[in-house]
Design a protein that fits this description.
The protein has about 200 residues and is mainly beta. It is built from no helices and 25 strands.
């Protein structure tokens, strides 16, 4: 437990990084890049569990940048992260077969994707996405290409552009709650979408 001021890079290794608990094991990115970088072909065997990630600042994926990889991410709090790029993802940018579960994303900001930018076959399950800002679109979720599945997730009080922005993707949003939307804008330009 404790607060660690650093930026972590998995460097292509399928390792497990596990904190004592997400409430008292904190990684502070000190506004100097993504807090955690998992972008070198890692699989679901690359695991990040039981951490709070704060103060990421980057062009893409300020909390977690997981491009060209498929990590397993569980029991995280991702907050106070800020992305400056175009298709960015303030809290996290996830691709491949990445799985994010049992996590909270709060007070993150991105131009397109305040909390999350998702592409490919990413899965988000049992999460809370609250009070994130999409400065242009996707305050909670920016979905770009592929087939994303959002299950048992609460999306509340996000603001800025559209709450969910889905472009060129097939999205399944299942047994999830979207409430207290500060605007009524949802954008879907997709092959199909399923709300269950």
């Amino acid at each position: 437990s404790g607060t660690y001021y650093e930026n972590i890079n998995f460097e292509g290794k399928n390792i497990t990084l596990k904190g004592e608990s997400r409430k008292n094991t904190i990684i502070d990115g000190n506004n100097s890049g993504p807090v955690v970088n998992i972008s070198n072909g890692e699989t679901n065997d690359a695991k990040l569990v039981n951490f709070t990630l704060i103060n990421g600042y980057s062009n893409h994926g300020a909390g977690i940048y997981a491009q060209n990889s498929s990590p397993f991410l569980d029991s995280l709090i991702i907050k106070d992260c800020y992305s400056t790029g175009d298709l960015d993802g303030g809290g996290a940018r996830l691709t491949g077969n990445a799985i994010l579960s049992n996590s909270i994303l709060i007070n993150n900001s991105g131009r397109k994707g305040g909390a999350l930018l998702l592409s490919d076959s990413t899965i988000v399950q049992n999460c809370i996405i609250v009070n994130n800002e999409g400065r242009e679109s996707g305050a909670a979720l920016q979905l770009m290409g592929g087939v994303q599945t959002i299950t048992n997730t609460v999306i509340v009080e996000n603001y800025g552009g559209s709450t969910i922005h889905c472009q060129g993707c097939d999205a399944d949003i299942i047994n999830s709650t979207i409430s207290n939307v500060r605007n009524t804008n949802f954008y879907f330009s997709i092959t199909s979408q399923n709300f269950c």
